[in-house]
Structure formats: structure tokens, C-alpha cells
Design a protein that fits this description.
The complex is a heterodimer. Chain A has one domain. Chain A is mainly alpha-helical. In chain A, helix 1 packs antiparallel against helix 7, helix 2 (31-54) runs antiparallel to helix 12 and helix 3 runs parallel beside helix 6 (142-162). The two termini of chain A are 31 Å apart. A two-stranded antiparallel ribbon of chain A has the order 1-2. The longest helix of chain A is centred in the last third of the chain and has 27 residues, at 246-272. Chain A contains 15 helices and 6 strands. Chain B is of the alpha/beta class. Chain B folds into 2 domains: 1-83 and 174-261, P-loop containing nucleotide triphosphate hydrolases (Rossmann fold), CATH 3.40.50; 93-173, no CATH class. Chain B is built from 10 helices and 10 strands. Chain B has helices at 46-53, 76-81, 99-105, 115-120, 123-142, 158-171, 188-203, 215-221, 239-244, 246-254; strands at 8-17, 20-30, 35-39, 61-66, 69-70, 84-86, 176-180, 207-211, 224-229, 232-237. The longest helix of chain B has 20 residues, at 123-142. Classes of the chains: A mainly alpha, B alpha/beta. Chains A and B meet through helix 7, helix 8, helix 9 and helix 10 of A and helix 2, helix 3, helix 4, helix 5 and helix 6 of B. Bound molecules: adenosine-5'-diphosphate (ADP) and magnesium ion (MG).
């Protein structure tokens, strides 16, 4: 089982390299931009797949965690702190190397939080908010949980829209690149940025992060914790009876998925050079749920494939002005006809007729 | 009756569901290393009593001591971690898991790997996983269902599903095992088999408290019996004395399908 996992990951890496080579040969490197963005969205979606498919919880608020990551990192790395230089806290941050100074386009002196520090802070905040929200909300089940997480998503969306610090309706732009590794000799530096010349490099950074995130999740699913999560999904009562702290595990996996979402938000924001309120919108959360559902719920690979594929098409503008409608429709169709996901539907339906749906209903009964 | 500290001690336990008194002033103890049975007609409150002990329900009043410690108010998982395991009257298996995996879940409290260790797949977790797998296979062998290790547990035959539940409970290495009607739905041979198994479990040093409808099984294997009727304890004694108890006989004569042997 482990061997097949490593083999699949190796295949994925080969595919990632192959696609990049192909775009060079066919002179279609512009595709790399959307493929890079798709990888970051996929990072969020595979984290959500573990919450939904393995722990059996739904979240209609994950765009909120993405936005917390993206907005905080954007705001911290763009807001000028020169005026606050004398403040002991700011001064302290500076002496810890957490600030960078420079000049803006008008030659004014600029002092902002370093991207790495902003990233850590943003992800940490997302984790803390997930913890605080999760404790009361994860006590709810089914529709109630969906409504509560939806409410959370709306709150984050409105905060972004209403707060000057977060740019209100315009969002935040001119977010600097994020240097992951400094230059070592002739190698590097490696930065996350939308810089035209760094397109190939950024494609590999995004896919590298996605592969690492995927590997960690696949390990988790195969572990004692993964078994406990599946057990919770199978029967909470029986899981408790063998000593599994069901509430604790649900909370931890929720926080983990929020961390994935926040990382995706941070990196994509630095890559795009900005973030706007649409990233926090409810339709984005619905889209993520649709991607997990169409990927097969308890299927991280399926979610990865559908997540990258459909997001790529969406970003290429294939769905035109029906973009959000397409994802809504996907969700409805999946729920009606293929609750185990599109990828597993054909095979199972072939052998079992309608049984896949019946089983699913029995499971939810 | 016994001066040794009790494995389990119920003191004046009450449970009301709205106006219904499902359990009414029930007190009894379970001696370590013994098999104790709770019997009584349908609706007497036996399952409710089990749910109170395992923490799935909270008592209306009264206290429950496990190894001398008050467990009333603890969550079921915390009670399980203290060394109490149970099976369910209505089989309660994990949907989508094989028999082996289901039993491996039972090793949860006896293993440690958390989120970080699991995600990074540290060498310590390999060793632990191997142990979990081996111990679980041993239990499948003990219950003679090892050939179904890789079959989805919920698709097994009824008796085998009960066996998986039992193996899962044993995997937690409990000190006290609660069995809610372990022979329900089994034929006469399978029931005798379950009887032998329960005796073996007791001989492994595990205290057993069971609810059972099959009188011959209860009389054969129990050291002591508690009789419930309409939520009240009406008798508590050794099997031979329970068989002679006029009140118990009266209750059971009132029921068509049951008879005291
Ligand atoms: N959760 C509940 N809510 C309301 N009434 C219940 C509940 N559980 C059990 N009862 C009632 O309590 C009584 C005892 O039930 P139970 O403990 O299942 O009996 P037994 O296991 O002895 O057959 C029955 O009258 C039953 O209907
Ligand atoms: Mg019962």
C-alpha cells in the first residue's frame, strides 16, 4: 500500500515535469500561470477533503481561512510602518529581523513586515481562529454545521469588505514577492512572485508545495490518526467506545485543514501580488465543497485531480460568466447521481447499479 | 459479599427519560475477575444501565465507581481509556472498514502516534503500526475470524460481525468488558461458542458484565446475576438461587418466549 502511494507520487512528479517541458516545446508557457494557481487551490481542497471525507464534517467556510491567510499576509507586507518606527513593539520586530525596509515607487521610505514573518503570523492566526470557531461549531452536525460554517465565511467576507486595513472592496494590491530560499552561490533565490521571468520557477514551487502537502495528508490517512478519523466517520458511538476522543479529533483535523487553506491563501496572494474580497466569498467556499464532492469525498487523489482540473478550466475562462453556476451545478449533480464522486462512479455503478447511492443513504441514515 | 475492592460499583443509580423511570434506584457491585449478568424482560432498562456505565448517558442521580473512581460525567472515550470496553446490542461497526482495520481501531488507546508523527511517518510509528496489526490479527485468530481479515466488516455474516465487535473491544485490553446481548440472533451452537469465549475472556483476567436473554447461557457462565424489572433491581444472587427466586419466576412466566431453566 505504501509502495503504491510512493509510486503514485513519483508519477505525479514526472507528470508535473512533463507538463512543464511540454509547455516549453509547444510554446504554451502561459498555461503555467493557471497551473500554478490551480496547485495552490488544490492544496486547500485536499485539506478540506480530509475534513469532509475522513472526519465526516462539512465546512462551507474554508474560503474564510484562505482569506485570513491571504489578507493578513498581504496587509502586513504592504502597510507602511515607518510612522510607527519608534513604537517599541515595531522596533522589537525590526531587531528580530521580521521587518524589511525599502522604497516605494515614489522613493518614499518603506518599512513592512517580512513575508516569512507575515506568513507564519497569518497561518497561526488562521489556526487559532479555526480552534476558537471549531470548539462550539463542531458540536453541531449536518445542516447545522453547514449553516454555522457558512456564517463564519460570510463574517470573514464582510470584514474584508468593511475594513480599510484590508482595502475594502478593492482588496490589497502590490503585495511583494516572498523569498523562500535566499541565493546560494549561483542557485536561487527562490521566490513566490508573479514576476514574468519567474514563471517556471513558481510553477515548481507551487507543485512542490502541493506534493509535500499531499504526501503529509496521505501519510496521515494511513496512520493511527487516519484510522481514528475513518472510525469517527463510520460510527461516532463505537469510536468513542474504543477510547477515541471524537470531538478532539474533529477539532484537530478542522484546524489542520484551516492551516492548509491559510498556506494556500498566503502563497497565492504573494504569487498574484494581491487579494480581493471575492476570495472570501461564499461562492468560493461552495466551489471547494463541490471539488471535494466531485473528487469522491474520502479520496484525496480524486480531489486533487478534480481540484486541479476544474480550477484550471475555470481560471482559463472556459466556463465564462457561468463560472459559479457550473460549480453549483456540479455539486447538485454529484449529490444526486454520484455521491461517491465522479471518478469512482463508473466502476461501481457498472457492477452495482444503483447500490452506490443506496449505500450512501444507508450510511447517512 | 466481597471485601475486595469492586471493579464496578453502582450506588442508587436513577435514570429518567421525561416521565419514564428507565432505571430506578439500582445498586450493585461487580467483583474483579467475575462474570456478572444483568437479566430482565424487554424494556427493563438493561441497555440503559449499560449506557449509563459506559458514559453514553448521564445518570439522573446516583454514582458509578470504576476501580474505585467516580466515572459519572466522564465522556465515553475517557471511560474507555480507563479500561472499560463494550459491545452493542445493535451491532455498531465502522462502515467502510475491513474486519482487521476495525480491530486495529480498538488498539487506539494502547498506541500513541499523533497528527505530527502520522504525517511525517516517523520510524517509531512503523513499529507501532506493526504491533497494532499483529495484536489485532491475534484477536481475529482468537475469535476464529482471521480468514475475514480483509473483508469489509459490515458485509460479514451476523455472527462474524458480533465476533469483530468482540475482538475490537478486546483490542483495547479492557479490565472490564460490557457485553450487551452477545448471543442475540445466534443459533444454539454459536451461543454455546460465545459462552465458552466469555469464560475464556474471564480466565484472561478480564471482568465481564453482560446483558443476556438466553437463560441457559446466563445460568451456565455467570458467577452472579442481577434481575431488573421496570427499572428496579428485584434480585441479586448466584444463578442457583436466582432460579429458585419466586419473584423472578413470576416475571419470566409472564413472558411467553422466555423460561427459567
Ligand atoms: N433514549 C431514550 N429515550 C427515551 N426512552 C428510552 C430511551 N432509551 C430507552 N428508553 C426506554 O427505557 C426503557 C428501558 O429500555 P432499555 O434500557 O432499552 O431496555 P432493555 O435493554 O432492558 O430491553 C424502555 O421503556 C425504553 O423505551
Ligand atoms: Mg437492551
Amino acid at each position: 500500500m505504501r509502495d503504491s502511494k510512493l509510486l503514485k507520487i513519483a508519477l505525479l512528479i514526472v507528470l508535473v515535469i512533463g507538463v512543464q517541458e511540454l509547455t516549453t516545446v509547444t510554446d504554451t508557457q502561459y498555461y503555467l500561470t493557471q497551473l500554478t494557481m490551480s496547485a495552490y487551490y488544490a492544496l486547500l481542497v485536499i485539506g478540506l477533503a480530509v475534513v469532509m471525507g475522513y472526519a465526516g464534517q462539512i465546512s462551507l467556510g474554508h474560503a474564510g481561512f484562505f482569506a485570513i491567510g491571504g489578507y493578513l499576509s498581504a496587509a502586513l507586507t504592504t502597510h507602511n510602518l515607518v510612522a510607527l518606527q519608534a513604537n517599541p513593539v515595531i522596533h522589537g520586530l525590526g531587531s528580530l529581523g521580521m521587518l524589511v525596509s525599502g522604497q516605494d515607487i515614489y522613493g518614499e521610505q518603506l518599512l513592512v513586515v517580512a513575508p516569512w514573518a507575515a506568513c507564519i503570523f497569518a497561518v497561526l492566526m488562521a489556526a487559532i481562529i479555526a480552534l476558537v470557531i471549531g470548539i462550539p461549531v463542531l458540536k453541531l452536525k449536518g445542516h447545522y454545521l453547514a449553516m454555522a460554517t457558512l456564517g463564519f465565511g460570510i463574517i470573514i467576507y464582510r470584514i474584508g469588505l468593511a475594513t480599510e486595513y484590508f482595502g475594502e472592496a478593492d482588496g490589497i494590491s502590490e503585495v511583494p514577492g516572498f523569498t523562500l530560499l535566499p541565493a546560494i552561490g549561483s542557485f536561487g533565490p527562490i521566490s513566490v512572485s508573479g514576476d514574468f521571468g519567474l514563471r517556471v520557477e513558481n510553477y515548481y514551487v507551487a507543485w512542490g508545495l502541493l506534493v509535500i502537502g499531499l504526501w503529509l495528508l496521505l501519510n496521515l490517512i494511513d496512520s493511527r490518526v487516519g484510522r481514528a478519523l475513518r472510525a469517527i466517520h463510520g460510527s461516532e458511538e463505537a469510536a468513542e467506545a474504543v477510547g477515541i476522543d471524537t470531538a478532539g479529533f474533529k477539532l484537530k483535523v478542522f484546524v489542520l485543514s484551516a492551516v492548509y487553506a491559510a498556506f494556500a491563501g498566503v502563497f497565492l496572494t504573494h504569487y498574484n501580488g494581491g487579494i480581493g474580497p471575492s476570495e472570501a466569498s461564499v461562492m468560493k467556499s461552495v466551489r471547494y465543497v463541490a471539488l471535494v464532492a466531485v473528487g469522491g469525498m474520502a479520496n484525496v487523489w480524486g480531489t486533487l485531480i478534480m481540484g486541479v482540473g476544474l480550477t484550471f478550466l475555470s481560471l482559463r475562462g472556459v466556463f465564462g460568466s457561468y463560472d459559479d453556476a457550473v460549480f453549483g451545478a456540479i455539486l447538485i449533480v454529484v449529490m444526486l447521481f454520484a455521491p461517491d464522486g465522479i471518478l469512482s462512479m463508473n466502476v461501481k455503478a457498472l457492477f452495482a447499479g444503483r447500490r452506490t447511492t443506496d449505500e450512501h443513504e444507508a450510511k447517512n441514515a | 459479599m466481597n471485601t475486595r475492592p469492586r471493579m464496578l460499583e453502582l450506588k442508587s443509580v436513577y435514570k429518567n427519560f421525561g416521565g419514564l423511570q428507565a432505571v430506578h434506584d439500582v445498586s450493585f457491585g461487580v467483583a474483579p475477575g467475575s462474570i456478572k449478568a444483568v437479566i430482565g424482560p424487554n424494556g427493563a432498562g438493561k441497555t440503559t444501565l449499560f449506557n449509563l456505565i459506559s458514559g453514553n448517558l448521564n445518570v439522573s442521580s446516583g454514582s458509578i465507581l470504576f476501580q474505585g473512581r467516580e466515572i459519572q460525567g466522564l465522556k465515553p472515550h475517557a471511560i474507555a481509556a480507563l479500561g472499560m470496553a463494550r459491545t452493542f446490542q445493535n451491532i455498531n461497526l465502522f462502515h467502510g472498514m475491513t474486519a482487521l482495520e476495525s480491530v486495529m481501531v480498538g488498539r487506539h488507546v494502547r498506541s500513541r502516534a499523533g497528527f505530527l508523527a502520522g504525517m511525517l511517518r516517523t520510524p517509531a510509528t512503523w513499529k507501532e503500526e506493526r504491533e497494532i496489526r499483529e495484536k489485532s490479527m491475534q484477536l481475529l485468530r482468537l475469535l476464529e475470524i482471521e480468514e475475514f481479515a480483509d473483508v469489509e466488516a459490515t458485509s460479514l455474516a451476523f455472527g462474524q460481525q458480533r465476533a469483530v465487535e468482540m475482538a475490537r473491544a478486546l483490542a483495547t485490553e479492557p479490565k472490564l468488558l460490557l457485553l450487551d446481548e452477545p448471543a442475540a440472533g445466534l443459533n444454539i451452537y454459536e451461543t454455546a461458542e460465545v459462552g465458552r469465549l466469555i469464560t475464556r475472556i474471564r480466565d484472561m483476567g478480564i471482568t465481564v458484565l453482560l446483558v443476556e436473554h438466553d437463560m441457559s447461557l446466563v445460568m451456565d457462565i455467570s458467577d452472579e446475576i442481577v434481575v431488573l424489572s421496570f427499572g428496579c433491581k428485584i434480585a441479586e444472587d448466584v444463578p442457583t438461587a436466582i432460579q429458585q427466586n419466586p419473584e423472578v419466576i413470576k416475571i419470566y412466566l409472564g413472558e411467553d418466549e422466555e423460561a427459567v431453566v
